[in-house]
Design goal:
two-stranded antiparallel ribbon, alpha+beta, 1 helix, 125 residues
Length: 125
């Protein structure tokens, strides 16, 4: 059995801080101001859309996230999802709710718009 991985992160306030690094972390740890700012991030997953104007674009970027030395918030692992340019953190229940909302939007918003667009384009031709 191998020893647990550790990482040392430079902080401006307390100097180098060594802590355990989870197996899912990408291992990128830039210097931060305080130990509470240290974060573990997993590999980013993105949905990809092919667009006529910009080609392939990623959206809904998501990754595992943890602030292991957080002082005023939870130290639990969450999933961060980028929405409107900001990362929002979700627990398992919240992530399930987000997935259900995205699915409902696709089924009851985007697909009906597709039908409407096809009908309009058919009228033009």
């Amino acid at each position: 059995m191998s020893a647990p991985r550790t990482v040392t992160v430079q902080t401006l306030v307390d100097g180098p801080v060594t802590l355990p690094e989870p197996s899912w972390c990408r291992g990128e740890h830039p210097a931060v101001e305080r130990p509470a700012d240290i974060r573990h991030e997993g590999e980013e997953l993105s949905a990809i859309a092919d667009t006529a104007c910009h080609g392939r674009i990623p959206f809904l970027n998501a990754f595992l996230l943890q602030y292991p030395l957080a002082e005023n918030t939870s130290r639990a692992v969450t999933v961060a999802v980028q929405i409107e340019g900001e990362h929002h953190e979700f627990d398992p229940v919240g992530l399930g709710d987000l997935a259900a909302t995205i699915t409902a939007h696709a089924l009851y918003g985007l697909l009906p718009l597709r039908r409407q667009l096809r009908a309009l384009l058919d009228e033009e031709s």
